[in-house]
Amino acid sequence: MRAARLTVTAAVATAAALAAVTGCTQKSKADGGDGAIQVTATDDKCQVSKKDVPAGHVELSIENKGSKVTEVYVLFPDDRVVAERENIGPGTKQKVTAEVKAGTYQIACKPGMKGKGIRQTLEVTGGTTAKRDPRLDQAVAAYRTYAQEQADETLPKVETFVKAVKAGDVEAAKKAYAPSRLGWERTEPVAESFGDIDPKVDVREDGLEAGQKWTGWHRLEKALWQGGKIGAEEKTLADQLVTDLKDWQKRVGTAEITPTSMANGAKELLDEVATGKVTGEEERYSHTDLVDFKGNVEGAQKSYELLKPVVQANDKALTAELDKQFAALNTLLDKYRADQQSYDFTSYDKVGAGERKQLSDAVNALAEPLSKLAAAVAK
Length: 379
Description:
Strand order of the largest sheet: 3-9-8-5-6
Number of strands: 9
Largest sheet: 5 strands, mixed
Strand content: 15-25%
């Protein structure tokens, strides 16, 4: 899930998580010498230098002049995510790129990284669509199948978890908890693009909005590991988890997926690892962080492997570096499981500070070249 908020230091260190949408288009020259729309975010304002642009690749150049960590989104009218940049610390600048067709969108700044945000309308007029390498269309089709398969395979595992919860079997529920999350973790950027599902199923307690009821996996995680007992409320919440994930399963096929969003989604998954899994914040009660960690890495690698034929033709050195860093990170993760075919990882509370630093360094070593993947795809 998205981190609720980070320290300024962590926010500055977190690399950009980009997303994109619909069609392969020419770059849109919006404002300024570099063609970017200038977005100035404060604690109570979201100022943009231009509110209408031609269709194409639109870049937002963001500066946070407020006192709070913020995030900036490009959104469809129904709040689905087109592009996002999270964890922008006070006094820092970041960029986010979106692929947009003609239509009406919104730019939202979220000071404190909560709420609906302060919004500006962005009108996108007709533009020229560029011809796309057919191998990229094949990659999108294959990734769409993969995302649907992950959702389909998740439901039986969640139902096993929920069955144990409803039976009051704490130990069986604990055993089923982490496996039930793998498909979600592998395709999290697709799930999060809908906007309303993630807060229902994957929010942590410190990420709740004012007045929001805490539901989903982590609410049940706390009951199982901290409380050690299952009551009537937990059984009701377990049923709700199945309902919400069935909604996700049905909507995966409607997700906007492009080669650029696949590439940026891979980077976003590494950011998920850096801001939640390595820190131990994601699974703070169960300490099953390394299972989520592995799922995020697998999802990022799947996107990369599907895009690799085109990326290799455009930037051979980049694919060589990505192959190297994915292999290094996977080898390091294998140290924490006896069977490389299983997802039975060491409990994260048993992983020392030095080992966590090693994992963090490996994530950062992969994140840097992975941040170049979208540009290589768009060449």
